[in-house]
Amino acid sequence: MINKSQPLRDSSIAADPITDVAARLPKTLKVLHLFSDWKWTGPAEPVLSLCEALADKGVDVTVAFRKAPPDFLERTVEKEAKARGIACYEGFRLNRYFSPRDWLFDQQAIRSYAEQHSIDIVHTNLSHDHFTALLSLSFSKKRPLIVRTDHKRDGTPYNYFMGWAFGRTDGLVTYSRRIMAHDVNTFHVPRERTCVIPPGIKPYDGPVQSMKDVFGIRPEEHVIGVIGRLKPDRGYDSILKAFKLLRDRMDNVKLLVVGRSSQIEKSIKEPLAALGLENDVILAGYRVADYFSVISTFDLFVMMRAGSDGSARALREVMAMGKTAVVSDKGMLPELVEDGVSGFVVPLDERVLADRMEILLRDNERRKLFEESAKRIAREKWNYEAQAEGLLDFYTRLIALGERV
Asked: Model pTM?
């Protein structure tokens, strides 16, 4: 159990005052980040942005990832890493699907790379690269320290294999205190080997235009925005029911849903039809070129559950653009939205959600104050430079602690 008198480590609270974190390192720190996927999903952006910021602080950081199919045209980890000028290594296979040949290849390849390049820390991000690194490096002549970031929305669930892996991991990073509390209780990770680093954001300050005409929304209509993969576990049933209650009370309100999923029929279209909301809910699909223009069209944003990766990237992007949000009290969402300051935090109750949305749509002055707070919080607290400093401090402390025994 967690000793409440000794709080979990947070990147915003240093263990001891330091003027220059990098000055505490005995030499240039060499870090290898593993990411056993090629898709540009929730965890990918904070991983690459942190690596980019670490490199700016003098860390010798390299990212290895799963190669994308050659005909894949959308954004990938590889394309984004190379566009940012991040050092990449493409000699691993990092195949998280069943492929014993690729798994055995990486067992040797990762160990050889770490020994040849004198890697100090191997930072893993997904369960496959976590297991692969542990199995590969257990027989290394000089084993690098192994760190895991838990990107799971509610923390990693226990099973025998995860218990084995976390029990041999030298350091653990999570996005939120709730996730860390779960992992510490579940896997008994020593508190001094943990670090909470809220996910950062790169605020968008480019040009935007109102999308109301594009979606057939009248100028006087309020727009409630929803962004995410449209899966049943994201709380869309509560959002649609709450919107129906709101629509019955207010005229001139639309719900704009941004995203896609093979499960859209079950998660959105069927309940939408059952509630008779076809004329008031707009399915905008997956947006790329005009994504931030769509956000600029929102009057407020709603999220009941973060995605499975737990980073709540859409919420952070929306708040960084100065939009207020109503979120549930599940997962890390209450740690991102300050109730009554930058938005509202509600239980998974459509009546309460409808009430809070109505308050914000009717009270323009209050909504403006929330919007200003949301933008300030996002840009001051979710800064990748500060997050990288927190992570570098954590690396330094782990090196001082040494390998976990």
From this structure: 0.85
